Amino acid sequence: MNSKEAIILAGGLGTRLKSVVKDVPKSMANINGKPFLEYLLNYLKFYNIEHVILAVGYKSNIIREYFGNNFKNIFITYSEEKELLGTGGAIKQALEFTNSKNILILNGDTFFDIDLEKFYRFHKIKNSDLTLALKEMKDFERYGVIEINDDYRITAFLEKKYRNKGLINGGIYLLNKGFFKSLNLSKKFSFEKDFMEKYYKDFQFYGIPFSSYFIDIGIPEDYEKAKRDFKKFKY
To answer: Full-prediction pTM beyond 0.85?
Structure first.
């Protein structure tokens, strides 16, 4: 991997998980004795990521106390939200701590076990401004759908509704930092609504499907599923 830097969005409140995960950020939800975020960092370590910027907010002291500034030789920087910035604002702020041209971004409450080297090669070959890792799902209504053409260019973002199958946003991105900063985006905004859905027609936004394991711990049922699944994890 050329890029050795990643941002993890770890500021989530975990509102829908309150019944089972109390008083900690969602990314710190306990999975078999380890916080969810630790599995993500082990995954990044597997792909030789050297610097992770944790975009934190809610109860960030819990994350800092657990991980400090180094995890298995991954250098950790904290980008602290002093006010709610939205996913886009959190990314924009965290980018100030990066040096690479293309930055890997992960949601702190989803795990998508994709081949990051393949993902990075695709991004470079396409000379993409933004690349999304897509997951094919069946029988779902929790997620919106993303459509791509034969060249993998994103052609539509569709609203949440029941579908028997479709490609969803897997919560892993590669972002061209220079391009992103050139747009003069506001301080607070949604990465999904105010950036991806607003600009995909005008710029080179691509999506690459992966069939890898995917889980979003945003609801109690999937949080419990993660506990079962992660027992046989390599990370």
So the answer is: yes
